[in-house]
């Protein structure tokens, strides 16, 4: 039987969900949130840092949550970094991070390709994406190797040379993108019927602390436009990375709270997949945007910054013991199987559905449980 305290926490969270009371979270609301969830999945760019600068208070919040016994995950759609390079950056910024806590869209792409037995892929992206594919045993062509390519436009019939072994095109953020990369990606999709995979469709990102920059959605949109095909999107808000995190923590999705700065990825990721959501205003979303009529994806609660979570210092020490006991039981409980919705691509769709007339938006992917573990270790 649930305790009166647990029932009160659930009521507050449910009231927020039903009433869509999105106001800045009070200390009482944050307490309810902390007593409802057992793990937190933090976005990085715009939430924990901006560019190479930590958000003030981020380190202290993470240290406090660890001390209280919460499982922590760091989930990024930034495909330019592998999990190993993200861990290196976190350590360099003075943050504590453990192997298995970092999850990224480049890793999600590798899991997806491996689960469908794809051996070679053309990449529009950077070194981090190539590194994750290599770690999964998938040969990557293109990527940084195609930076700065020149072409003889005086040729009678100019065309790019295609590798017949390529059966997928993976597009992520590429700060060295060029016309020939887009042309090559399009040619593989149209000519060889390759599978079109996108790490994410973020329109903008916090690559610096002073200015937003064009995101991976820029490159994905260009390839989608010229190929007249739609990609399978594997990063947030797809549930793949959430299932990996929940499996590692031994919890179901409704015991995970997502903390992030984007409505269309972080908050949508939580809402679409049954997790909790807490928005921060240090990244891509402003308080004014939350008040715009017609905004579909809204968080249950928002705070100015992760630093606001430091108000939980007054939390009772008995919380740690109670959480440890709960997680011990959860680890032995029967976890929900990875969901496969009707939108999961069939084998036939996987080969041909990227054409515009058979386009599939993959918000839910068919990935075997064994694939979640087979390449979960960060390369390097």
Provide a short characterization of the protein structure.
By secondary structure, the protein is an alpha/beta fold. It has helices at residues 4-19, 27-34, 58-68, 83-92, 105-115, 127-135, 179-191, 216-227, 240-249, 263-272, 287-290, 318-332, 347-352, 369-374, and strands spanning 39-42, 49-50, 53-54, 71-76, 102-104, 120-124, 139-142, 168-171, 195-198, 204-205, 213-214, 232-233, 256-260, 276-280, 301-303.
List the topology elements.
Layout lengths: L3 H16 L7 H8 L4 E4 L6 E2 L2 E2 L3 H11 L2 E6 L6 H10 L9 E3 H11 L4 E5 L2 H9 L3 E4 L25 E4 L7 H13 L3 E4 L5 E2 L7 E2 L1 H12 L4 E2 L6 H10 L6 E5 L2 H10 L3 E5 L6 H4 L10 E3 L14 H15 L14 H6 L16 H6 L6
Parallel strand pairs: 1-4, 1-13, 4-5, 6-7, 6-8, 8-9, 9-12, 13-14, 14-15
Antiparallel strand pairs: 2-3, 10-11
Helix pairs in contact: 1-2, 5-6, 7-8
Task: Describe the protein in words.
With about 375 residues, the chain is of the alpha/beta class. It contains 14 helices and 15 strands. The strands form 4 sheets. The chain has a 6-stranded parallel beta sheet, sandwiched between helices. Strands 7-6-8-9-12 form a 5-stranded parallel beta sheet, sandwiched between helices. Strands 2-3 form a two-stranded antiparallel sheet.
